[in-house]
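Box 3.1 A note on notation
Throughout this textbook, protein chains are presented in two layers. The first layer is the amino acid sequence; the second is a token string describing backbone geometry. Keep the layers aligned when reading.
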Amino acid sequence: MHNVWLVVKNIGKLPAEDLNVTVNPELKTATGVKLAETIFSEPFAFFPPQKEFRSFINLSPDFLSEESPSEYEFTVSYKWKGSEKLNEAKYRINVSNYKKALFRDEKGIKDIVEGINNLIRAIKDFKNRK
């Protein structure tokens, strides 16, 4: 099973200020929380060179489900340290080919939780039979 991560890294030589990351359509994490409601709800005031931030999004079977979007557009906006000019870069990511991968049919988080709950019920039923 594979994890899906959102990775933001300052590959420049200068610190970035007011770093903001948005995605369209809205990206939800494994817990159902929108990305915009996580650490990305406010711009990063300071983001040093080579700094990398990783945020877990979901397990691949859930992220690549038939109901999930096949394309996302990420917008990254920032200012270089000491500059007032706002820079913006857009990155379009299409995951439709990954939806066809073999691991797509593996169990996701919801399936795992359901399995654990079934085990708990079975153990309780077994204990109650005594």
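Strands lie at 3-9, 16-24, 44-47, 52-59, 71-80, 87-94. The radius of gyration is 20 Å.
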